[in-house]
């Protein structure tokens, strides 16, 4: 009898049939079978150059990129001094917008590392196109080239009925501007490295009645932030570069409805806080660098500046304070000069937790009698570290008394991040466990190795030894101390 060559008699569970099924499943393109809106969302997560390349995957993907609602173009850094990469980048954006088939653009972003003056007409046309498509989120990041060219924003952008989020970097506004702004739906505005003025800021605020978040980073030329809108709840001001025009000036901030304030970076000017009755959260992640050659007077100047800030923030519920500020408070804690008293419930310490920070931390705890939550986050030392005369920090916490009312009556939760088990860390943990009479929970997160994210800082036997040491402290118990690695 002739032998059959087909597989009709094979069992459904036979190895050969299972292998054939497996091969067939591997050939099925399950991703291409997803609905359009899912595929468009996937493409929206890519740089547009990569999204366009995805069109070669199959017929299903060929034209999808032309309807992506989120368009982001990222210029790659040049490998040489030629202009070829710039031409290629401009042509990519142009071609994409010419072939674009979507009815609406939700987000449009351009990151250009070397903006040249000859780009201006192209950028104008891009903005005009996305405005016609009722763009909601616009992000222009146009770094100037070595020639110092800056893009001037077109007037038609100043009046827009669809923008809800706007981020501008290294762009300039074209004067005169009074009465031109109309961004009635704008809720978030971020301005980076842009020259401003008091009048310009007021014009922007007046034309943005729905604005909730204002982020000013490396912006120069303004002296007052008088924010009267009841909608604007969050303000961030960040400096990192020296600006000679503001070294002797004072930035005044008045915002009766503001709820969150962040002051960040290197400051060469003072800041005066006024009329902030609704403020709930504040961040002081600053280093103040006065133009003063005398070290001791410089410390006094900086302490007085910091003290004035803390006095005006005494009513905030949550305060995050950086390591430089903590070190300035250390200089005065050692002189038995207290920090301004506060009503804060939550204190976040962004600290390197070395000997320079210890008295400052003690000072903040003393001035926080109502404190319920303490978070300790490790960071790098400040650029301008403070020098403490004849202070080595040895056994600082062991020799300290239960100096704070919060330790006796209110502190319930402590969390310590990036813990590596250093002496000052262990001493602080032991001090809190010994003196925090109302403590309910302490959570300690061990630090991961920076170069091996998948590996923990502690080996199992080290973690066990560390755990035993922690639990040997007075008042420590497994339900009160939680170790996370």
UniProtKB/TrEMBL annotation:
Residues 28-77 form the F-box domain. SMART domains: FBD (SM00579). Residues 1-25 are annotated as: Disordered. InterPro entries: At1g61320/At1g61330-like, F-box-like_dom_sf, F-box_dom, FBD, LRR_At1g61320_AtMIF1, LRR_dom_sf. It comes from the Eukaryota. It holds the Pfam family F-box. Gene3D superfamilies: 1.20.1280.50, Ribonuclease Inhibitor. This is F-box domain-containing protein. It comes from Tetracentron sinense (Spur-leaf).
